[in-house]
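Title: Comparing notes on inverse folding

I've been comparing how different people in this forum approach sequence design from structure. To keep things fair, I'm posting one structure and asking everyone to reply with a full sequence. Here's the target:
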C-alpha cells in the first residue's frame, strides 16, 4: 500500500496491533511505534514526515515500517479517529475490563500481585486472581527461553482449560515498557474489541515512560 492521497487520515492502532505491541518485551521498532501512538493524548494525523519522526527513522525505513504495519493490520488509517478515553486510569478500568469477556468477569493485575481493577468478581476473588497471575508472570519469565526462543512460541498467555480445550480462565501477560501486567479473563475473551486498544492506551499513558 502506498501513502499517496492519504494525508487527511489518522493513524489508528487496531486490536491486533495492541496485542502485538505488548505480547513480549523484546525491543522492536514496530512495538515501540505502536505503544507511542497508543500513549498519545490526541489523535495523530498521518504524514510520512510525522510517522518518520515518531518512529525515529529516515523516510525510506519509515515507509517500509508503515507499509508492514498496514499490511499486517496492526495499524489502520481512518477518517474519523476514536478519541482517547478521558479520565484517570482508575475511573475507566471497570468500563473497559467488563467488555473483554463474554461473561463480564475480568481482572487486571501487575507483576507484584496487586489488583489494579476488576469487573464481575468480588474483591477477595479479584485480589486472589491477581496474586495468582503474578505467579504466572514469574513462571513464564523463568521458562521464556524454552517457550519463546527454543520452541518459538509467540505469546505469553496461560489458560485453565476444559476437557475439550476451551478456556475457562485465561491469563494474558502484557508488557508496557519495563512493566508487566496480567489480564485474567473468565470465559471467552473479547480481545478483538477497540476497548482492548483503549486499555493498552490507558496503561501506556500511565506506565510507558516509567
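Reply #1:
Here's my take.
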Amino acid at each position: 500500500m502506498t501513502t499517496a492521497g492519504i494525508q487527511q487520515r489518522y493513524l489508528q492502532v487496531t486490536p491486533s496491533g495492541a496485542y502485538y505491541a505488548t505480547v513480549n518485551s523484546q525491543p522492536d521498532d514496530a512495538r515501540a511505534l505502536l505503544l507511542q501512538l497508543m500513549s498519545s493524548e490526541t489523535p495523530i494525523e498521518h504524514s510520512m514526515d510525522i510517522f518518520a519522526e515518531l518512529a525515529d527513522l529516515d523516510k525510506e525505513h519509515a515507509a517500509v515500517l508503515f507499509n508492514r504495519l498496514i499490511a499486517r493490520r496492526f495499524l489502520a488509517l481512518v477518517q474519523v479517529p476514536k478519541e482517547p478515553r478521558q479520565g484517570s486510569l482508575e475511573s475507566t478500568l471497570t468500563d473497559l475490563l467488563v467488555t473483554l469477556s463474554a461473561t463480564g468477569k475480568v481482572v487486571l493485575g501487575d507483576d507484584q500481585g496487586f489488583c489494579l481493577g476488576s469487573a464481575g468478581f468480588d474483591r477477595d476473588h479479584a485480589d486472589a486472581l491477581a496474586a495468582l497471575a503474578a505467579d504466572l508472570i514469574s513462571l513464564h519469565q523463568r521458562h521464556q527461553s524454552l517457550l519463546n526462543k527454543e520452541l518459538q512460541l509467540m505469546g505469553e498467555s496461560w489458560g485453565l482449560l476444559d476437557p475439550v480445550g476451551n478456556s475457562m480462565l485465561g491469563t494474558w501477560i502484557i508488557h508496557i515498557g519495563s512493566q508487566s501486567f496480567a489480564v485474567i479473563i473468565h470465559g471467552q475473551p473479547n480481545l478483538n474489541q477497540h476497548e482492548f486498544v483503549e486499555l493498552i492506551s490507558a496503561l501506556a499513558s500511565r506506565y510507558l515512560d516509567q
